[in-house]
Specification:
Number of strands: 17
Shape: globular
Low-confidence stretches: none
Radius of gyration: 20 Å
CATH topology of the largest domain: Uridine Diphospho-n-acetylenolpyruvylglucosamine Reductase, domain 3
Strand content: 25-35%
Number of domains: 3
Distance between the termini: 12 Å
Helix content: 25-40%
Mean pLDDT: 93
Largest sheet: 6 strands, antiparallel
């Protein structure tokens, strides 16, 4: 991993939050698996983030920004560099637009649950489909998260980025090439905040829809075990979970990693699963899908680090 003294020298005098060295990511990831990060940096402000990124780039230290660690697996060999935990960037505010609509601005580290609750309290509709999704704003925008026939791209107005060159840049919706589970944003850019265009609604209807969606998720998803949400991207006209179920893989396991009997596109940790167990199970599913169906199943989760 990146040398501890090198990261300390780069960041020690600017980071106001914690820096934990050689830190097991299994303590933070929603699936409760993952090797050690060279450093886990708790980012407290946008200004600090910009300085951190510039310092790490100067010294050619690898880094990756993360939100809630709900959609990422760090391999058991760990990540050689700094993982930037963005939870400190969680401000949300609301303003009206000249057209009479309403816009909610949220920093990338805010959780979707915070965003959905904020909009509901303001009687603003359009974000209900995000109810129950455990990720952060930044992660949801980056992968164009969606559910119930709607996606983040449908309500985005602007996105503010930190470019690969350390500059702030704002993009309008029409400048962003959203695709299925993809924002098309430059790979080395970091989302700082996003603005969502919403409409006035009725607070009781909004809260009712949120409750309905959360109840559905509780009934259909294996929330009683650690998981990382949907493992694979859906296929055109065919949910990945249905395909995996048709192949008879529900309940298949690799040690304590198991294809959920409740929803086949979820892999759950029954207790002591490792990242290697989860990745081995993913490989079993992909191999069978290719052999029996001629289909390449692509993961929705992000996999980083070394074996």
């Amino acid at each position: 991993m990146a040398d501890r003294s090198e990261i300390q020298e780069a960041l020690g005098d600017i980071v106001t939050g914690k820096i934990l060295y050689d830190e097991p990511m299994s303590r933070y990831a929603s699936l409760c698996v993952g090797g050690n990060a060279g450093a886990l940096v708790f980012v407290e402000s946008e200004k600090e983030l910009i300085e951190i990124v510039l310092r790490l780039k100067e010294r050619k230290i690898n880094f990756i920004p993360v939100g809630n660690l709900t959609n990422i697996i760090v391999r058991d060999g760990g990540y050689r560099g700094a993982i930037l935990l963005m939870k400190g960037l969680r401000k949300i505010n609301c303003a009206s637009t000249p057209e009479g609509d309403y816009c909610i601005s949220a920093q990338s580290g805010a959780t979707l649950s915070m965003l959905v609750s904020f909009a509901a309290a303001k009687a603003l509709t359009g974000l209900e489909f995000c109810a129950g999704i455990p990720g952060s704003v930044g992660g949801a925008v980056w992968m164009n998260a969606g559910a119930y026939g709607k996606e983040i791209k449908d309500i985005i107005q602007t996105i503010s980025l930190l470019t690969a060159y350390g500059e702030k840049k704002t993009l309008r919706r029409e400048e962003i090439s959203f695709g299925y589970r993809s924002s098309g944003l430059p790979p080395e850019s970091i989302i700082l905040n996003a603005q969502f265009k919403l409409e006035n609604g009725h607070i009781e209807q909004i809260k009712g829809k949120i409750s309905e969606i959360i109840k559905w998720r509780q009934e259909k998803h294996p929330l009683n075990f650690p998981n990382a949400g949907s493992i694979f991207k859906n296929l055109p006209g065919q949910p990945a979970g249905r395909l995996i179920e048709e192949m008879g893989l529900k309940g298949t396991s690799c040690n304590d990693a198991e294809v959920s009997p409740k929803h086949a596109n979820f892999i759950v940790n029954k207790g002591k699963a490792t990242a290697s167990d989860v990745l081995a199970l993913i490989a079993v599913i992909q191999t069978k899908a290719k052999k029996e169906k001629g289909i390449n199943l692509e993961t929705e989760i992000v996999i980083v680090g070394e074996d």
